[in-house]
Amino acid sequence: MESIIVLGGAGYIGSQACKTLLAAGIQPVTYDNLSLGHESFVKYGPLVKGDLLDTALLSDTIRRYNASCVMHFAALASVADSVTDPASYYRNNVTGTLSVLEAMRATDCRSLVFSSTCAIYGQPEIVPIDETCAKNPINSYGRSKLICEHMMNDYSAAYGIRSIALRYFNAVGADFDGEIGEFRDNETHIIPRALMYLLGYIDEFIIHGSDFPTPDGTAIRDYIHVKDLAEAHISAARLLADGHAGGAYNLGQGTGYSVLEVLSAIERITGRKMPAVTGGRRQGDPAILVAQPALARSVLGFAPHYSSLEDIIGSAWAWHQKAHPQKSLPLTPARVI
Question: What pTM, to 2 d.p., does this model score?
Answer without folding.
Answer: 0.93
